[in-house]
Amino acid sequence: MTKLLTCKDLELYYDHIYALKGVSLEIEEGETVALIGANGAGKSSILRAITGLTRIWSGEILYQGRRIDHCQPDDIVKMGIVMVPEGRRVFPYMSVKDNLLMGAFTRTDRSGIGKSLDMVLNRFPRLKERYSQAAGTMSGGEQQMLVIGRALMAKPRLLLLDEPSLGIAPKLVQDIARSIVAINRDERVSVLLVEQNSRMALRISQRAYALTTGRIALAGQSVEMLNDERVRHLYLGGE
Ligand code: ATP
């Protein structure tokens, strides 16, 4: 497999907070990789570093073999790295349709944009049903589908998902998990999935990294991590 993304020894500070203490991770082309860990472990900081929203202090980020850690966030989107941030930030007064079209703002290929829109609406029939509805009136789970759909409109090669299951009803968490699997499989989009729902993340990913206070504490195949005593104890609530 080809390396899509490589993070080497990332260090990141916020004023006096040492948030990432030498984090290295890799994503191969076509993989879904999970990043698990408690609140404040540094998961979002890794995503913000990859997308250029927060500058790393030291280390390297390579995408398709090219350094991107000095690139601007909009250029990183154009290269195919698209993040769905935590908190389902939809444009509440805009329709589902217009929210989706906003996701394509970096693109100029009109026929390609139309194809992406069809793909998103087929993938999320709920969005088709609510196409003209104001996004802010939808349920949390539906809004999560919308922000994932909006990210797909940018035609990502690598999708970074920050806590897609947070605060969502269990039934919809399953739907979202299934959608992530389908996007990875059918659209050939690689995924880096940040989750506090470690069990779900380990079930739908091939490999995983577990983060503890700014360091990778454990890494491996997700199936093996699901059965690992230390992972069960530290990240799966001791079950
Ligand atoms: P959560 O699940 O709560 O989002 P996380 O694992 O994503 O947690 P980060 O958000 O990356 O963790 O935060 C890592 C550390 O950096 C935490 O101690 C956090 O308080 C701190 N931090 C994050 N953003 C900032 C900021 N803008 N200014 C100061 N400290 C910050």
UniProtKB/TrEMBL annotation:
Task: Using the record's annotation, list all stretches that form the ABC transporter domain.
Answer: 5-238
Does the entry feature the keyword Transport, yes or no? yes
Which Pfam families does the entry mention? ABC_tran
Gene3D superfamilies, from UniProt?
P-loop containing nucleotide triphosphate hydrolases
Q: Does the keyword Isomerase apply?
A: no
Which biological processes are named by the entry's GO terms? L-amino acid transport
UniProt record similarity statement = Belongs to the ABC transporter superfamily.
Q: What is this protein called?
A: ABC transporter ATP-binding protein
**Organism this protein belongs to:** Microvirga tunisiensis
